[in-house]
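hi! just following up on the protien thing from before. the input was this:
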Amino acid sequence: MTERLQKIIARAGVCSRRASEELLRAGRVCVNGRIAQLGERADEELDTIEIDGKPLGGRPAPVYLMLNKPRGYVTTVSDERGRKTAMQLVENCGSRVFPVGRLDMASEGLLLFTNDGALMQRLIHPSGEVNKTYYVTVRGMLSGAVERLEAVRDLEGEPIRPAQVRLLKENGSEALLEIVIHEEKNRQIRRMCRQCGLQVVRLQRVAEHTLCLGDLKPGQWRYLNDSEIAALKESDDT
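and the predicted 3d structure came back as:
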């Protein structure tokens, strides 16, 4: 069966589908000895697919793990500025895996990694409507903050879906909010808070889809168990 090359490459665990498209644009992928084009299809059982002259290996065993990303790490495979990356924290997992979505450098918490390219794409696509839950400590205009945040529908001209916001605790000049969003616009929660007169002191993702961070310590990771993987896939199929 023929499939788009970027899908085949991502599923093989070489890189994400987006990065696979860049490999194709750069002319680094060959099919049966010929440089392949973006959008081209191939049959991985019948065709010889090579990247930089090396045959594409068979499908690796799927790996699923979660990391509690600390602050100070960027969520990229590599960083041209030499900053620490979340990839470095999971490099001893035994497989080449990729982050599902992002957490900015100043944010922390649950970050899923996998080499299952198909599942990764479905989870990060807006149509998946994946819930992401954050604990956000804020300062500033605390009175009416929940209502203001829930009313945000536009970020600097970019439409967004409404967030669910709940006040968990208020202590003097600071408040702890639970914010649930379905999209993952660039720095979305920080931009929402700034727009509502709030300064983010701490931002931690505590749950995503069917996964919860639990008591995993910052900088530590663990493999998902069978029931977590099954729940992730079952809810993705609904």
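The helical segments are 5-11, 17-25, 86-89, 117-124, 145-151, 188-195, 226-237.
The chain has seven helices and 17 strands.
cheers
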